[in-house]
Design a protein that fits this description.
The complex is a heterotetramer, with 2 copies of chain A (about 425 residues) and 2 copies of chain B (about 400 residues).
Chain A: H1 8-15, H2 54-70, H3 73-79, H4 88-97, H5 116-129, H6 135-148, H7 155-160, E1 165-167, E2 183-186, E3 196-207, E4 214-219, E5 225-230, E6 236-240, E7 250-265, H8 267-305, E8 307-308, E9 311-312, H9 317-346, H10 350-378, H11 389-401, H12 406-411, H13 413-416
Helix pairs in contact in A: 2-5, 5-8, 5-9, 6-8, 8-9, 8-10, 8-11, 9-10, 10-11
Chain B: H1 5-9, H2 17-30, H3 38-47, H4 69-78, H5 90-103, H6 106-118, E1 123-126, E2 142-146, E3 149-160, E4 167-173, E5 184-190, E6 196-201, E7 210-221, E8 225-226, H7 232-246, H8 259-268, H9 275-303, H10 310-333, H11 358-365, H12 375-386
Parallel strand pairs in B: 1-4
Antiparallel strand pairs in B: 2-3, 3-7, 4-5, 5-8, 6-7
The chains are: A alpha+beta (about 425), B alpha+beta (about 400).
């Protein structure tokens, strides 16, 4: 079991048992705008907790149990071919009864006052089942925007599950630069006497917007503003789009002179959008982690059962080594995902941006690899419609593009890690 | 952020850390580092149970959690006390000591652990053979008993510090007529005897970091046998478990390890930057940082009493990244990368994965996927023990002497 | 440059090409494409030995080198004559015909080859089963003989064009009491009978390009058995050899195949370009072009009578590149890449690896490493037959009925 | 053996048997300067011959026989630790007796009048043995420069093997842009009455310069010029460099007021250097191909013999699949290398530049991968000095940098294949 040893290299450290993560930079509690910023630089280093806590483990068990019962893959698959691709019933249970909608919302506003660490665990479970609910869009991204904007009107409704919200930014937008808005402010530019505004424009490629009853719409007005729109208002139109991942169907939203309330303006609005996208990318990484784990588990189980040449396919060494490599990737992805969740829980700042970039890059690649191995190692059956593998492949591919690709997040290391690009 | 119990694992702070600090303070009061002779000081520290606090009382410790060792080490380092130079006795501290502790007799622990910890006696490991690499249990070195003495003959390879070692962990075949795992016995061999010849084993780097050891009727008193006759495999496994956790799983600062020099060169030499290299650098830097986090998570699991199998993953990733990063670094260096520093045969003090020039690092890294368990063996272990996939069909279950070699 | 013999292979020009051209001219003079009815024309072309010139006289050919076929095809195409639409009968032309030619009786060749070539009879292939994919020889579909008739029952999968086919190549188990390879027999099955039910088999693309075929006491006259009873495995192998060369080994212009749309999108959409994607594009474009050259080299070897084993390499690379390029293309497309064109169940005429939108190409490409021999099986074949590495130890040598499934 | 079929996709073409390589662009016979140029655009497409011809096969047999006899790996290894790292004896036999020095030189100048197709085959065999001879530097690169410069003085001496020449450009230089010269022209700038010049300067990192008796020195004078220097002249100094690959040891050359003859000036000189570097890169690709094949062959042979767990290591499926993948890479690399050799034989032009770029990129990656697999699959023994594996690893790594890295050659596809870089 040993070919050679080089223990000297390592034994000296091995005798010590340093268990801290020496974070080079550290995060700021206040949300910063786009780009890494520098607000957090001065603050003391903290030690990230990369493990799962008891409360997180309990939450996971509750969510997993519910999904096992309410989101078996055959139902998830069948729903992708209906006119109602979002499972409203499941979402209501998850949001209101389990309380997932209010995880990030302070108790003072009716939420659970938990953190991104718990939200990330819920995302892992949703990734394991590719359940079609707007947790990411409403309970994470829109909620993060409202929190950063200091909203108090909508958050209680979100916490109770009465309202589902969506930030009107295309899913394919990256987290690094402020996406250009395709919505304009109609006269009166400064809003009417009741402080109300009118919005007109079309935004396409939105995730989790179909079930949303409230839209948070950024507008490149002067100043840049964040506006809330109730879809019940006249002039709001939604069009479902045929999406690669029908378990998180994208849509196009049209606004015609729609009544809107401004919830943030200027830097505050910009920071709210930046925080929302960063939080979304960080939590999405955990969704990808859960997806990757499920693909690995399902494939390992299958190759133990599937016989060819009168042997379990999982007994062939080439298959064993590939699954071992995949398991290794998952261990790496998990560390990155937990690091991002823990830093998001601590607030926004350069180290949080770094953590999210590392996690989204690692988890995007791992989830895609896992889904592809799932199909290949299932052989023909994995290539058929009547098998869950393709649901995972499509979700993995869409997630790898959503909220910044692995490439895009690694590119942010130019500033975050001081690795300048070639001229 | 949350502060659940596992968070305690995050920084190794446990209640009795202060108690330990005062112990150390008392000890230092009684043994002035300035005036006490080095060896005397170290022996006293051992006898005071402040050598390795997770070891039992009377054997240099006091049965405390391993995570507290760092507290003691900090105090002694701060006080500028003499060091036992762990880097010179890595196998002794990392592999021999835990093995002796787990399988040695009270008399052996008494006799070996103190001089081992103080550095008076360097240990090496006589496991691998030319014909038994990944298949350690297939080894051919024979040991024959005559009364209270064993006589061992055979060839061992890949033994680091054999040329400095006083004692060796030796696995030898004591019964060729039974299946290979059952015919092995484990010994502590005295390296300073005529029957032991140590020759440098030169690597592709030009260095001879390792040795070949030739045993010709080497003598071993039966009192130096560790574990029962025929139990050599079991004892070896516990030794190797300690080896595996020790490679690739160490605490590092961000941009520590192989990525450091690559990133430095990138920053200092804008003229070497190309788009293709940039893409590779970003991937490697990100992977290295994630691997560092995975190592940190592994240690948090251990500290929280949730040991996981992720150790094998750490070593696999460590090897892959060292190889890819050093390969990148040589290419980045361009014309400089075509040069080497020195091919002359040297005998380094220990392995230095990250030293010398890019060419050296590139070559040395090739060993990382072979030494301490090849990457192929690690993948087997993960597939079979972690994922529970079927084992390879075995054709080596018959008597050792009848196996094809 | 040199012009050695092998160079002749480079463009397929052989002395009697002109002779052939004049033959075609005479034929066209005798059968005016304008006035002759389509089927009549094709049958006449077949009877004139101008269908596939490498086939024997009397069976549509005249025993010439295969490389001359292109000459004849060019002439007929130039004259705007009716086509036999090979794309509609790929399995018939690519797999059934060579199998019939190699293993059929004179009467069977007489009966089947002409309607096959003219397209009057479409053929499909009933090989794979849910329980027998890579391990084809493990198949369970039973065929039982009663006098001059066989009765077949079982389930087959992955049969393309089964819904259009008049006949099928069927491998069935005729003796479960012998080792699996020895109990198989090969038949030509009439698909237009009550015992045959064809159901669309939907893929991850949403399309149903393939079918499941359920046989329930399907009848086969013994006259339609191809090869001896128990020889089914041997006959199947020759069928599959023809399949393997047909996937991934085709002539293509530069930037043909999957890379075409990716390169076009790159050129037409500067706003989508990023450094990371650029590095991937350059690698993929270069690999695709090199794979194209490797395919060309393979065909030059065949033309020069130096067939090599590189065919398996071509299919492996074809699958890998199709997957990596389409994966790249979806990412390049960004927001567009998150959309799909249509999920409704369709029945395409044939496989279309490079059609529709990036999402479709991405999904369809996943099948390339499974269909026509998985990449894992191809690696085994290369390792064992090309590199001569030891075969896997077999545990399936006993009677088929006793094997675990 | 089949999981599914998609023969329709391919059968139609399969029934035809097109055996030509449709080269998109085609080469011009005249040497062009740096960059792809456009001179060849208009010319008719030609069909590249990707096979080995009889004369090439015979030449290979002769060279292989000689090397088996004169360059066993133990001798090659031993020589790397001597003061004489180039095997002059072997080189003389190869150059003069087998005639490898004059392959590219017309018979009118005493050469064999063969082509790059044969030179590439010799390079393959030299790669298989990593034999320390200056074939690439003298018989390919320097010779190509002299041929392009229309030299008639030195070529006969090179053809006879009496003289070994080296182009004084660092081995790490790429083929795309003209390397800056570190040598200057001393007064009189226009040369003296006998048309002789004086050169001063230092050039470092030269391959195959140690055994060279003639140096071809490019100087960024006005006009740009190519000068020939006899090493016997006073003022020439050579210093061997400790090189990663000691089977092709690099060196530094110092010129102090050295007497030189100008052999080309202006565009002619530039074209000569461009042609020499391109030819060198193209032939180097074949050297890498040969090296990769040898690593594969040696490793396959070893894993058949080496037993662990009472089985040949080569019987473990994970090993089998890795070697199969390596074999596949070699088949790809061979096609690219032959394509480059065949186009070089046809002259210089855009398609030749394309062919060399593809070949150097593919063969660099394959050779490095093959050498690394050789070490890994040999286990401990492959990591020791007393085994040939490291000679191949060091040569493979040096070759992957020499005359343009894979990245650098792929980068030239921006123009060659019209794949513009991002802004």
């Amino acid at each position: 079991m040993t070919e050679a040893t080089a223990s000297e290299a390592t034994a000296s450290e091995a005798t010590a048992s340093n268990t801290t993560v020496n974070d080079a930079a550290s995060g700021g509690a206040a949300a910063t705008g786009f780009g890494p910023g520098a607000s957090g630089r001065g603050r003391p280093a903290r030690t990230a907790n990369l493990l799962y806590g008891e409360t997180e483990t309990e939450l996971r068990a509750a969510v997993r149990g519910l999904l096992a019962d309410k989101a078996p893959w055959r139902d998830v698959l069948a729903r992708t071919e209906t006119g109602q691709t979002c499972d409203d019933g499941l979402w209501h249970t998850l949001a209101a009864e389990v309380g997932c909608a209010g995880l990030l919302i302070p108790e003072s506003l009716g939420g659970a006052g938990a953190s991104y660490r718990e939200a990330a665990v819920v995302a892992e479970e949703l990734g394991r089942t590719v359940a079609p609910v707007p947790f990411l869009g409403s309970a994470v991204i829109a909620t993060a925007a409202l929190l950063a904007a200091g909203d108090t009107e909508f958050l209680p409704e979100l916490a109770s599950g009465a309202v589902t919200a969506s930030l009107a930014i295309p899913f394919a937008a990256g987290t690094r630069t402020r996406p250009e808005s395709t919505v304009r402010l109609d006269a009166p530019q400064r809003g009417d006497e009741r402080g109300e505004y009118r919005l007109t424009g079309t935004i396409t490629g939105l995730a989790d917007a179909l079930p949303a009853s409230v839209l948070i719409v950024p507008v490149d007005s002067v100043p840049y503003g964040l506006y809330a729109v109730r879809v019940s208002e006249p002039g709001v139109g939604k069009r479902p789009l045929v999406s690669l991942d029908m378990t998180r169907q994208l849509s196009e939203v049209r606004l015609e002179q729609v009544l809107a309330r401004r919830i943030a303006a200027g830097p505050a609005a910009e920071q709210a959008v930046a925080a929302a996208l960063l939080a979304g990318a960080g939590v999405l990484a955990s969704e990808q982690l859960g997806l990757a784990e499920q693909c690995l588990d399902a494939t390992v189980a299958y190759v133990k059962e599937r016989h060819q040449f009168a042997r379990p396919v999982g007994g062939f060494q080439a298959i064993k080594h590939r699954l071992a490599d995949l398991w290794v990737s998952v261990t790496q992805a998990r560390a990155a995902a937990r690091y991002a969740a823990d830093w998001l829980a601590a607030g926004f700042g350069p180290e949080t941006t770094m953590a999210v970039a590392l996690a989204k890059a690692a988890c995007s690649d791992t989830a895609l690899k896992a889904a592809q191995e799932m199909i290949q190692l299932h052989g023909g059956i994995g290539f058929t419609w009547e098998h869950p593998a393709h649901l995972y492949l499509k979700r993995a591919k869409a997630d790898s593009i959503g909220l910044g690709t692995a490439d895009a997040h690694r590119a942010s290391l130019d500033v975050l890690a001081n690795l300048p690009a070639p001229e | 952020m949350l502060s659940d119990k596992t968070d305690q694992g995050g920084n190794g702070q446990l209640p009795d850390a202060d108690a330990l600090r005062s112990q150390v303070a008392e000890f230092l009061a009684a043994h002035d580092p300035g005036s006490t002779e080095r060896l005397e000081f170290l022996r006293a520290r051992f006898d005071a149970g402040l050598a390795w606090v997770h070891y039992p009382a009377g054997l240099g410790g006091q049965g405390l959690p391993r995570s507290l060792q760092v507290v003691v080490d900090r105090e002694f380092t701060a006080a500028g006390t003499p060091s036992n130079h762990p880097e010179r006795n890595g196998i002794g501290l990392g592999m021999a000591a835990p093995t002796i502790l787990a399988h040695g007799t009270p008399e052996q622990k008494e006799r070996w652990l103190r001089p081992l910890w103080t550095g008076e006696e360097i240990w090496c490991q006589l496991f691998s053979e030319p014909g038994a690499g990944s298949d350690l249990a297939g080894l051919s070195t024979r040991a024959v008993r005559d009364g209270d003495t064993w006589t061992a003959s055979g060839q061992k390879v890949w033994t680091s510090s054999a040329h400095m070692a006083k004692r060796a962990l030796l696995v030898a075949r004591t019964n060729p007529d039974v299946p290979k795992h059952e015919g092995l016995t484990y010994f502590a061999l005295d390296m300073k005897q005529p029957g032991v010849e140590v020759r440098p084993l030169r690597q592709i780097t030009g260095e001879a970091e390792f040795n070949e050891v030739f045993l010709t009727d080497a003598q071993i008193p039966d009192a130096d046998r560790i574990g029962d006759v025929g139990q050599g495999w079991t004892v070896s496994m516990s030794t190797l478990m300690n080896e595996r956790v020790s490679i690739g799983g160490n605490a590092m600062p961000r941009e520590g390890g192989m990525i450091a020099s690559a990133a430095r060169t990138w920053r200092e030499h804008p003229e070497l930057r190309t788009p293709g290299l940039y893409d590779r650098l970003l991937k490697l830097w990100a992977d290295a940082e994630v691997a560092r986090l995975a190592g940190a998570r592994l240690r948090q699991q251990l500290a929280a009493g949730q040991p996981g199998p992720e150790g094998s993953a750490a070593k696999l990733v460590f090897a892959r990244l060292n190889q890819e990063i050093s390969e990148f670094e040589v290419e980045l260096a361009g014309g400089e990368g075509l040069l080497y520093d020195d091919w002359t045969l040297r005998r380094p003090e220990g392995a230095n994965f990250f030293g010398r020039n890019p060419g050296f690092r590139f070559l040395r890294a090739k060993g990382n996927s072979i030494e301490g368990g090849t990457s192929e063996i690690l993948r087997n272990i993960i597939a079979e023990r972690v994922l529970g996939l079927p084992k390879e069909a075995r054709v080596d279950t018959g008597p050792w002497k009848d196996l094809p070699r």
